[in-house]
Amino acid sequence: MIFNPDLQEARSKELEELGYRELAGRILNCGTKNFYLGYPHTTLCKQRMCPTCAGIIAERNSAHVQMAIRQFDNSVAFLVSVSKMYDLARAITLFRDSLLKIRHRVEFKSHVPGGVSALEVKYDETTGFWLVHAHLILDDQGIDTDFLKESWGKYTRISGTNWTGRFEYHTDPQVDLRRLKQLADYITKKETWCPTPTEPTPDSLRKLNEIIMAIKHRKLLIAWGTGRLIGQE
Question: Where would I find the beta strands (DSSP E) of 3-143?
Fold first, then answer.
């Protein structure tokens, strides 16, 4: 495990500026070595905004995606997005609610026994909009793509949304193991939710705070049905 005290200190300063003093202290002290019951122990803050722990979380999520896909009979990947919005939290809520409604449709449940999805956000410096999309991988048993597109447009309720990028993805572990890891690492990358710390400016702090508030109490990885690992609650 590689700790980066400089990045942790930089993130801690950003959070101090935003008033998250307790969180800033946890991240600053992440990686501190102490003794517990006479044995050396390294303290982890386990915070998603920590440059160190974000990497650990991303690795765990990547491993989950890889194992889940290898359980699928037929993996198909989609790129799913909603319209550009100024309000990041609202855009994420719209996305999650719309996906949940589609998952509850009889036609969807009868042809898709499970899936995994990882949200990603980007900020458009030119327009000031947030771009919210997800890499969605389904255990596809014959779902109609037109049904997905029509349902997505209906539930998102806002013009400019799309459901695109369908492609087959075969996951023979003896053949595609490297490709599978590359896909999983990409869609669960830590930079989505833990941007690299920078010298604080009013604009950078505003965007960082929006991300913090938007992902509060939200899972970064959505998994259901055959996408949930055996033994997972």
Answer: 33-36, 39-42, 75-81, 114-123, 130-139
The rounded average pLDDT for each run of 10 residues, N- to C-terminus, in the chain (233 residues) is 86 96 95 69 88 93 90 85 86 89 93 92 90 88 86 74 44 60 90 91 95 90 84 41
Tokens of 186: 């990409």
DSSP tag of 52: T
Q: Which residues contact 54 (CB under 8 A, 6 or more apart)?
A: 47, 48, 190, 193, 194
- Record the tokens describing residue 54, joined without a space: 């974000």
Alpha helix segments (H runs only) across 123-176? 145-156
The secondary element (H helix, E strand) that includes residue 224 is: strand 221-225
Q: Please, are residues 89 and 113 in contact by the beta-carbon 8 Å criterion?
A: no
In the three-class reduction of DSSP (H, G, I as helix; E, B as strand; rest coil), residue 80 is classed as: strand
Farthest-apart Cα atoms in the chain, separation = 62
